[in-house]
Amino acid sequence: MAGTVSGTFAGPAMLDRLGKLLAWGFPLPVTPRDLLPTAAIQIGGIIGGCLGAVSGGLKLGWLAFTSPWQLLYEGDPVWPFAVGIGQIATALFLGLATVVVHVGFEGPLLHWAGARRLSRREDRWLGQLLITVAASMNIREPPALLMTEDAVPRAYAATRHVVISRGMIRELEFDRAAIAGVLAHELAHWRRGDPIAAAWIKGIALPLYVLHEIARRLIGGTRSRPLQWLMRAVLWSVLVTVSGIVRPIQAAANRRAEFAADAAAYAAGHGEGLRRALARLQWWEAGRDGWDDVMSASHPHTELRLERLEAPGRRYPVHDELALVAPPGRDELTSHMGEP
What we know:
The protein has about 350 residues and is mainly α. It has helices at about 10-25, 30-35, 35-75, 80-105, 105-110, 120-135, 165-170, 175-190, 195-205, 205-220, 225-235, 235-280, 290-295, 300-310, 330-335; strands at about 115, 145-150, 155, 160-165.
């Protein structure tokens, strides 16, 4: 108590009162003034230093935010408004241009990323399955379905395509209901316009993300600690803005979109299949610890998604055996694939 206020005018009075209290209740051969001067200075200095660091950081941040606008206003009161309008116009232009590029050149971009069209035998069951799922969701003209040879189970919706990996097909063991649930989830993303929104946000924040990518590569590309600290000191504003503000806000919106896509798949009658797929894929989910893994995660916890896909009045065990049971109609699917 004395150390906390030692740096203020209340410090000496606190020491006197503490001495009287100890003399009355627990007499000591020394006084608090003799016992605590060094500790009081140290404790008070640490607390004062922490408070000063917080106060100084807030003031510096406020000055960094306001001083450019103040300088512009001092030059001409119209300049801050002109610069603000110019930044908004630039952001809108970059967002629109990014969306146009993603939509217009999505096919070649996905092809360069490793996606390909379905083969004839894949189209006989997987392409038809997409059409069936789209019809259940009242989608008359579904996007084209592409395949990647990626061994990692992945599926995502683009602006004009849905992409699924062979790793996803193998992991789900050609389970028709589970794959239909995954396709319904991605079609819900496509119908909601989530890929368009992602491209729009990417375009608006393009300059910031370019700087952040440069900073990340410079910091991660060297093993020299002094050079890493120098890069962090120079580019700290970009790193803090992206990692501490932009990415968590965007990730929170993405998590809400995932829940919404799950709900749309459930409403279309594919909740059980999607739940089976998520239960089977749950072991791919890594632990979440730290700011990036918790605040910047683009998907909710799989267990919470499974919870929302539970049918009313049905009990679900902790160990979901539905993820391990071969689905009915497996022979029919494998015959389409040309397997014995």
